[in-house]
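Entry for the shared binder. Reason: the reviewer on the internal report wants the predicted structure included alongside the sequence.
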Amino acid sequence: MASGNPGEFEGYVSITENDKPVKLMDKARKNPFYPIGITAGITALAWSAYKFKKRGDTKISLYLIHTRVAAQSAVVGTLTLGVLYNMYQEYVVNPKKK
């Protein structure tokens, strides 16, 4: 016990609300496509919100479904590119010898 508190263990780090940006930065260092995917999704949502007035005769529910699909496609596409890039780096550029 570090400080004598009954619920506190030595080496234990509690996660609070203030640690969330630190966790996000840690994930961004490990996988740089993570923040790129988040940015792509937010950009797709912002673009759809900007074009909302010019949707024409399209129903709002259908427009929102298209917006969701566009944002998900942007994020999944970016993460897929990240996986392909990592595979290229691991198997083509720096292959492990057996």
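Summary line for the report: Residues 60-93 form the longest helix (34 residues).
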